[in-house]
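Human:
Focus on the backbone:
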Amino acid sequence: MNGAAAVWPIWGHQPAVAMLLQAVASDRVRHAYLFAGPEGVGKTAIALAMARALGCLAPIRPGLPCGECRSCRKIERGVHPDVQTFGLDSQIAAGSKSTGKNTTLTIETIRALTSTAVLRPIESRWRVIIVDDAELMQETAQEALLKSLEEPPPFAVIILLANDAEILLPTIRSRCQLVELALVPRSVIETGLLGRGVEQTRAHEIAGAASGSPGWAIRAVASPKMVGERVEAIERAVTWVRASQFERVATAFRLGDSFTKRRLIVYRDMEVVLGVWRDALLLKTGLPDAVTFPVVASELSDSVDRWQLRSIHAALRSVRQCIADLEANVRPRLAIESMVLQWPNP
């Protein structure tokens, strides 16, 4: 990485990056952060960028890592002794003693984390601990983490990564500086892909299907199948939103009946439907350039013109409530039918 490219390599999130960069540059780093936002939005990328900024041996200027020194290269390869990541992957690799299916972070994993956090850094001034999947910590694990958050060593920075910060205990949230990360605009993702050498037409297609997720877009570059599946999901969602009331309910029944066997697919489809209604809201408020899915602007603009703003808000809330109901084990058919009955007439 040359000097010119060594600025934090983040797609979007300028306010969050500027705040964190300034904290490093002014030596006012907090000892606990909580990066919260949707899956694939860039939480890990920002955490590693901050680790490089804290550990760089020859920064371009305060807060801006060189990307070329031994420390920067080690962090890039994931082998720096002062930067550790704990999460489901590390828990599985360590051979968790949990009798479950490794769907939560156990107290054993957090004890290993806290034991690491008190060790003085070997090669740099800071020890950076990144906790992936933080919202999956068992309650006992969160309680075990509290002591490290309440009395952190002066050289430790603990960064929690969570899709939903509200799932964490209030005592955990209150001891961290919250950094909320929103979905990234399609144009920013497209520019990032072009910078990686992706051809213009393909970059445009991937960015349009990425749902605001840079992480998904980067993975999709190597997997045309991912793009095809997402495009199909977007088309299904738009067709569902445009359908008659009868067809909407019929689709709700089909999804509800298939939920047990196709749980992950249904959840992904629901997230895309959420994105469609979010785009409808942006169109209604006069922000067509901010939509995530270009097809929404081309196929739903007439409907959006007819719908009232409060009706679109209600539809958006209904999808969020449906996802929450499904996670709470409400009967799938009932949850999804209740959702579509709150959508405005097509």
